[in-house]
Amino acid sequence: MQIFAIFYWFCLVISAKQYLFKSCEENGFCKRNIDYCRNKLQTKISNYFIEDAIEVGSEYAVISGLLTKKLPNSDVKLPFQLSFLENDNIRFTLDENRNVDLNINANRFKASEHVLPHELRLKDSTSITIHDGAEKILLLYKDFKIEVFVNETLQMTINEDKFLNLEHFRNESDNQQQLLPEESDFNMFRDNFKDSTSDKLPLGPESIGLDFNFVDFHNAYGIPEHSKGLKLEEEIYRLYNVDIFEYEVDSNLPMYGSIPFLLVSKPRLSMGLFWINSADTYINLSKPKSGAKTHWMSENGVLDFIIFFGESPAEVNKKYGEITGFPTLPQLFALGYHQCRWNYNDQKDLLEINSLFDEHQIPYDSIWLDIEYTDNKQYFTWNSNFPDPSGMLDELDLTGRNLIIIIDPHIKKGSKVSNHLQKNGLTLMNSENDTFYGHCWPGESLWVDSFNPGSQEYWDELHRLSPENKVFFDNTNIHLWNDMNEISVFDGPETSSPRDNLQYGGYEERSLHNLNGRKFHDMTYSSLSKRLESTQRQRPFVLTRSFFAGSQKSAAMWTGDNMSKWEYLKLSIPMLLNNGVAGMPFGGADVGGFFGNPSKDLLTRWYQTGIWYPFFRGHAHIDSRRREPWVPGEPYTSIIRDAINLRYTLLPEFYNAFRESSISGMPILKPLFYESQKFSKNYDIEDEFFLGNSGILVKPVTEETTKEVTIVFPDSEIYYDFTNGKISSRYHTQSVKVPVTLSDIPMVIKGGSIISRKMRYRRSSKLMNHDPYTLVVAPSSTNSASGSLYVDDYESFDYKNGSFLVANFELKNGKLTNKVTGTFNAPRRIEKILILNTHATKVEHDGASLRFKSIDGNLEIQNPGLHINEDWNIVIKKDLVHDEL
Ligand SMILES: *[C@@H]1O[C@H](CO)[C@@H](O)[C@H](O)[C@H]1NC(C)=O
Ligand SMILES: *[C@@H]1O[C@H](CO)[C@@H](O)[C@H](O)[C@H]1NC(C)=O
Ligand SMILES: *[C@@H]1O[C@H](CO)[C@@H](O)[C@H](O)[C@H]1NC(C)=O
Ligand SMILES: *[C@@H]1O[C@H](CO)[C@@H](O)[C@H](O)[C@H]1NC(C)=O
Ligand SMILES: *[C@@H]1O[C@H](CO)[C@@H](O)[C@H](O)[C@H]1NC(C)=O
Ligand SMILES: CC(=O)N[C@H]1CO[C@H](CO)[C@@H](O)[C@@H]1O
């Protein structure tokens, strides 16, 4: 849903009002920190010391004490803690004791309470070890500095530049503001940014800032969401969730979601920095010759961060996931194709689209309803164009399909839901602690405060299976879309909530801001997981626009609203890659682009790229022309159908990748430097990716009139051309140029992989459940290969109780074997085994010969009579002959 419309809305209803987002210079806390640094570079004097006795915890894993901030006439004592956590993670926190009597909560907000488990396990000593080397952390007292060594080599310094800054509580009515010589007093107690002048700033200046230098690390990634490339450049990045309309390519402006997690990587060492703060945050990243320098600044909150170490980037993702949670394992249907537009007008329209997919033999799994399905934008109602939602859901269910409807956090003033929220104090409050009202889709609205436990209870009630909700939630094939949860307030500063609004616990919105989107979709997820407790519990599906660290546990995201333009198609890949690096891999961009009308070529290329998005949805603005796959006509429709079919044939591999991600935090679209850190070029490639650990490497075509693409390989393994899922050449080189036509999706399989496919067209993924598999074996340069296939019931939580199976395929010494682990009963047949680049004179299973063919140098075994849920081995006689290239 988008803001293009909002923009017009303003033109019409209010006045032509230009939205502007605060630059660092316009944002009080950021400018004060930058000024502080500039002055610091001159004076180079430290204002922070550890003077007092330090306590070492009984386990020797926690060092705590007071950090003294030296002011001109007094000192402020700030409690700190340095903890050595299991897995060699290091955590540091710095807080402030404020004895302030105000009618709001004056404590510094701890975002950690919402993203970390209650107890982080400690290591049993203060020394940490990363692989075999000797690692050491030095805490230097005098100027307060932390140095991190790995193998005797300095890898990271904290507060090297003395940018540490914690603006302690100050009372405006004190004459003496106790400023340090380096501090400026810009906008300490008021905000002169034009849309925020009414911000009362009741706690005055309270920002935090700190510098982290990564020695010899030249590759930094993460801190989404920004409409920029994969590898971070020298830039000031901002993390502040906003409904950004008309976002531009290559911009450092804030967007819908934020994850304050940075990854740096070089051969043999990767590190992660998680800055646990949900307030407005800027990161100044620079890349001098010595490595990557970062300066982090947040408007308020506790200073709190964790550092992770790993030999590879994937190891860092795993450690980050162990703390913030791993991505959700969705139902299989959520990995199929989603058809959306703003809006399908009525029940008839929707069901017609549903049957047109079948008419055109294009599989899809869910159809979506944007805001217009409601009665006057009142969520939890249907308008009269949808006279029988239950019947509609039943009809979709006949072909295993789902309906996904939108429910946003703004609630129309005067509606039943808003009255309840208002009466029970469950809303976002203004600075006077009365219900806050603002403008959004329904007009005058209030917002549910998702931090309030009472809101969760009421939300559960609204989503509950009950006679009253019958129309809404009596079908298991209805799921949810949470939009506008940054939150988007059309007439609010920076399109969001005034910062001095109050939320549960008496905290200002300012402190919780970046968590609001996540709390809202978490609340929805939680309600949906309860709704069917009495019957069959299905994994809920929730799509969110706004997100934060931890969102991966319950939602998918999409990149929001933009134009049907080639640049945006191209940008979608690095944006999604960066989200994966930051632990939120279940994402996608609107296929076709949101605003405008894509050319037929662009639409086609977008489908061919979109089939690789972990979340694959076509969507369009209300003013865009219809563009369902059959609309462009031939040859486009056939090419789009082939692309969507390719996605469906690879669903087993997509599901494998999601499973892997759900237990290890690995990205689903894996950047090349995850595959190998050896070649420095791998760190720069942002238009290619692997599908999980499948060995499938893709380079989608994202430029108009492309006749040829260059595929770069990340290592020296053999690669097999697999264009459109069909095998042709083999490559044993650093890169290769391949010609492409409009129907081509350039892709290769890495030697050493075994992939599982399902080749039959069905109307939806659910109808493919019992279909047989085809295995594609791609031998490595040493004639071996391996791959695994994860299978469960695709919809319930039973897998958490061990109800799943993993088929482990391996090719070695001329033998192809399957070893099954797990107990799930899935007697699925294997209908074909294709072994690339292999000759045989005989193929045997249990002493009996199997039928095979040699086609183009590949070995094809038809109907071997094997199943994925049984151990077996087949022997390929006459040694594998590997063609040298
Ligand atoms: C960002 O950091 C660089 C390098 O330290 C510095 O030159 C630049 O002035 C900083 N930018 C701001 C706005 O402080
Ligand atoms: C704000 O009002 C709610 C009830 O409406 C009350 O529970 C809460 O304590 C109030 N907060 C403050 C900071 O006064
Ligand atoms: C540290 O030393 C160990 C053992 O020699 C080695 O395996 C590891 O790669 C080294 N790490 C770095 C970052 O150099
Ligand atoms: C600020 O100082 C004034 C005057 O000393 C005092 O009345 C007021 O309570 C103080 N405010 C806070 C929040 O401490
Ligand atoms: C897992 O097993 C436990 C104990 O048998 C049972 O209570 C629980 O409901 C099961 N959970 C799922 C998701 O099946
Ligand atoms: C990436 C991209 O295409 N951004 C566009 C989003 O929409 C605005 C407004 O139309 C354009 O100016 C951007 O270029």
From TrEMBL:
Residues 327-656 form the Glycoside hydrolase family 31 TIM barrel domain. Coiled coil: none annotated. Residues 665-755 form the Glycosyl hydrolase family 31 C-terminal domain. Pathway: Glycan metabolism; N-glycan metabolism. GO terms for biological process: carbohydrate metabolic process; N-glycan processing. Keywords: Endoplasmic reticulum, Glycoprotein, Glycosidase, Hydrolase, Signal. It is found in: Endoplasmic reticulum. Residues 79-283 form the Glycoside hydrolase family 31 N-terminal domain. Pfam families: Gal_mutarotas_2, Glyco_hydro_31_2nd, Glyco_hydro_31_3rd. GO terms for cellular component: glucosidase II complex. SUPFAM superfamilies: (Trans)glycosidases, Galactose mutarotase-like, Glycosyl hydrolase domain. Its main location: endoplasmic reticulum. It comes from the Eukaryota. Belongs to the glycosyl hydrolase 31 family. This is Glucosidase II subunit alpha.
